[in-house]
Design a protein that fits this description.
7 helices; mainly alpha
Length: 256
Amino acid sequence: MGGLLFLLFIAAYFLFPDARGCSQTRETLSMLPFLKIPRLLITLLLVFMCALSIGYVQPSIELHLIPLGLTPIQIALIMMAPSLLYIISTPLIGIICDKFKNLMKWFMLLSTLMAAFSFSLIAPIPILNLKLNLLTFMIGYMGFGLSIGGLAIPGYSELLRIAIEKGYTNDLRTQGVISGLFSSIWSSGSLAGPILGGYVVDKIGFELATTLIVCGFLFSALISFFFVIYDIFEYISRRKKSNILLASETDPLLYN
């Protein structure tokens, strides 16, 4: 992995355009103003939950499947299933998000709800009063693979879209700050996930620990839903003001 990243660094050095000759100002762009944008913070929260859930599953899922009496090959095939589904669905998700940029927030919201539902079946959580069986587990695990793509793929593009919507220019400085925020939040979730999947599962059990993950997804989805509804009302308000302004400009100055 380290060697691959080094090769990518060399490729980026030769392929990226030289920004030194640009007429843009060379002032640095602080990260703090971005953290004052509520919609951007909510998107970062969704990205964090996505990375946390991936790290949570990895160290504990094999122990969770022991009661089913599966062979190592069967466990390996099960663990490969969501990754395979993620690989297949990623291009389709990318095409959809690229063509319908304004729907990315809805896509991430639905993916968050899907993740909550999927984790409810993976455990299953105590409130469902279900016993662990291979069918419900696979439904939840495959849904988890789809929800990862729905959160990870549009995450960076949605962050950049929000920044541009708030008045930032779409240049290398803005993209650099957004990339740094995305990477740091993803790394934080990847760090917190194994800790939750190891320590917390050891203390309270996989079912209750997974219930915490489900609650985290539902809480994130609830906040995201309120902001999506707010954006809709804000858009309607802007359209009304624009129509009123257009009507006032087209009205005749003198009436017969």
